[in-house]
Amino acid sequence: MPFAPSDMILVSPAFDPNARIPKENTGEGADLSPELSWTNPPDGTRSFAVICHDPDAPLVSPNGTYGFVHWVLYGVPSSIRSLPKGTEEYTAGKNDMGNKGYNGPMPPAGHGSHSYYFWIIALDEDIDLEPGLTMWELLSRIEPRIIGMNRLVGTYSRS
Q1: What angle do CA 125, 64, 121 make, to 5 degrees?
Q2: Cα separation, 20 vs 37, whole angstroms
Q3: Could you give the C-alpha distances from 9 to 54, 121, 149, in angstroms and in order?
């Protein structure tokens, strides 16, 4: 696993770091991915991947993975520095609901607040990958190509 700290900064006009994610970006609302933008990618970046993962979900699979994956997106060209709300561009992976694309936060009722990690990952290659990879499949395929990453964390609890 690469250790790839970077000066990239990931932000969203929809929510501040460690703040509540708006309902429209959740399974209780319109279920649209939030608008995201990033700056300062590492030199040599050729493409990006985006992931949204809830490590607070009390789920462990038989293969040793944990949490709940809400979004896997890859094949984002290096010239791109933002994604609009509800984007359906680029290559969609499979989330833990079994869907391609984004399915937003919706922790179990009464389970309290969960943290949602939106990751931006910079790759030193534009890797042509088939649609529908899970987060874990994607990470295993891109691991040697990762040159930088950072995250934006938001929170959500059921109303």
Answers
A1: 25
A2: 18
A3: 20, 11, 9
CATH number of 9-156: 3.90.280.10
Task: Report the distance separating Cα 70 and Cα 52, nearest Å.
Answer: 5
Q: What is the pLDDT of residues 48-96, one digit of tens each?
A: 999 999 998 776 666 666 789 999 999 999 999 999 999 999 999 999 9
